[in-house]
């Protein structure tokens, strides 16, 4: 905040060094009040991304930050400038499929003055390999096969758990088979008594003579 307040009054500033300030982010309008800025040093910070929004900037130092790749918008902004240079060595370049466009652009760009010093920090098989020496076929992202194998393992584990629960349930049924059998017999007998009573009442109601006998007996 102090830096932003100071910048607010430095309209004629042409060089700005903000290296080694533990900066993690720079907003797109952070230097909007510095229309004459030509040299910007942001090296030795912890920047994960950078958006160029300085009209007259000629030199940008982004060395030793935490950049993993450059966005297409940033590359386009760099490419549209003439007499412009960038330093990018010492960043955490992750050499997977997400960096393909950057590597292709890097090979054809003259703006990155230290592009020979850019190297991969991961994956392990490309550790310390220069970005200019990486083949496109080597820029692989983790395939969905790993996820599928993980899902298959989860399904197998779930199946084993369900099978174990089923075995426990069957074991409980087996150990309590006599009690369950008695319970079923009781239900059967109760249903039988209920149905016999229902049929008896139905026969009485359907035969007037039996109905009269029933009434006389009640009297």
Automatic annotation (TrEMBL):
- Lineage, top-rank taxon, reads Eukaryota
**A GO cellular component entry from the record:** plasma membrane
What stretches pass through the bilayer?
155-175
For this UniProt record, the keywords arranged alphabetically read as follows: Leucine-rich repeat, Membrane, Repeat, Signal, Transmembrane, Transmembrane helix
Q: Where is the LRRCT domain?
A: 91-142
GO BP term, pick one: negative regulation of canonical Wnt signaling pathway
InterPro entries to which the protein is assigned, alphabetical = Cys-rich_flank_reg_C, Leu-rich_rpt, Leu-rich_rpt_typical-subtyp, LRR_dom_sf, Wnt_signaling_inhibitor
What's this protein's name?
Trophoblast glycoprotein
- Name the species this protein comes from: Scleropages formosus
Q: Please state the gene responsible for encoding this protein.
A: TPBG
């Amino acid at each position: 905040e102090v830096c932003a307040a100071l910048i607010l009054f430095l309209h004629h500033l042409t060089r700005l060094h903000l290296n080694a300030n533990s900066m993690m982010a720079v907003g797109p309008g952070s230097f909007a009040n510095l229309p004459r800025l030509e040299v910007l040093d942001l090296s030795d910070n912890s920047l994960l991304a950078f958006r160029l929004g300085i009209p007259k900037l000629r030199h940008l130092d982004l060395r030793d930050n935490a950049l993993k790749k450059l966005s297409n918008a940033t590359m386009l902004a760099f490419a549209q400038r003439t007499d412009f240079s960038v330093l990018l060595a010492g960043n955490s370049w992750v050499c997977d499929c997400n960096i393909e466009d950057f590597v292709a652009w890097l090979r054809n760009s003259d703006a990155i003055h230290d592009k020979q010093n850019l190297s991969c920090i991961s994956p392990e098989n490309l550790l310390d390999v220069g970005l200019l020496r990486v083949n496109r076929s080597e820029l692989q992202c983790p395939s969905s096969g790993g996820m599928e194998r993980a899902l298959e393992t989860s399904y197998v584990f779930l199946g084993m758990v369900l099978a174990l629960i089923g075995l426990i349930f069957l074991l409980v049924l087996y150990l309590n088979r006599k009690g369950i059998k008695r319970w079923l017999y009781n239900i059967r007998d109760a249903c039988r008594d209920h149905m016999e009573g229902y049929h008896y009442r139905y026969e009485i109601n359907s035969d007037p003579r039996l109905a009269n006998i029933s009434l006389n007996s009640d009297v």
